[in-house]
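Feature request disguised as a bug report, sorry. It would help if multi-protein outputs had a clear separator. Right now it looks like this:
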Amino acid sequence: MRIQNVLLIAVIFMLSACATKTSKPARPLQIIPYVDIAMAPVSIGCLSHDGAPYIYSFSVEEFYSKRMVGGLSCGGTGAFGYMLPMQWHSGMKVKVRWNRPIKGEDYWIEKTTSIRRYDMPGTLFVHFFANDEVRVVSSPLSYPQSPKHPILNSVTVAPPEEE
């Protein structure tokens, strides 16, 4: 037992001696800036407007983490904890990915669009239109059936993208 302990200690010393020899100097520490942005967890919903195909499943990329959140079929709202900035600012673009079956085969589409201007964060609604057009809005108090919703339920053509 004593010989095994001595051998173990000798091996540790030899390996640690090898580990301290380097052929090139260590790189200096790189400082990555930390940005503290107030975020709000919101639900995700979806609406397929007249003329748009059935959406089998969809997901939206979080603005800062680049994590894809979603996975439900269009027509419902899911409490996924999508992290949306408390304050809107220009240039907020997200990737939307959706699946719609064509002749029994999965057909995935991926597009990048802006999140429309909002005053308060709320449920993130993805609006699908004909010709694979998509718009994303945040609405804290109104669902697509409400006349106060940023994109009305009755609209059949995608409104222009905001910057």
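(second protein starts here, but nothing in the output says so)
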Amino acid sequence: MTNSRSAFALSLLAMLALAAACGGESASETAPKAQPETQSNAAPANTTPSAFPTAVLVDPNTASEADLAAVPGMSEAAVAAILNGRPFATPTEMNDAIGDALDDDARATVYARVFIPVGLNTGAEDDYKLIPSTMSAGKLAHEFEEYRPYESMEQFSREMSKYVSAEEVAYLARFVTLD
């Protein structure tokens, strides 16, 4: 069992290192800047880019203004809201700070790259609902909570693979921590 956990962890780390070395996401995954006239403070629609990003998430609490501005879909108002509102303890706090600075599509695009990981065993339903996924927000939160307590990321991967592809399981693992 320990060898399979180690192999899984090494495989995941290798994927992340390869993605970072290759520049992360492709240009086809970028989205146009959000238009301020059509924005809402709702949670992002649970949709993801056609390919699941594998690069390490940007930490909104430590990222520079330039790093935040370079994120596809990020508006100037959202960058300012993040810089002025941090530090954030949860994704919900960041979402509340961004307010109307992003529309739903831009929010999903941004959250696929900028996010505060949520504890699998202690995370709140509202935080899970902000994770961009092909699953509906409510179903995703329900499935994350249903299998608590998680003893390993291998367990998380095994349980989530019942509902989504292996590619999406690896993508979802970027948004959570084993606490």
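Even a blank line would do. Unrelated, but nice: The chain has one domain: 34-177.
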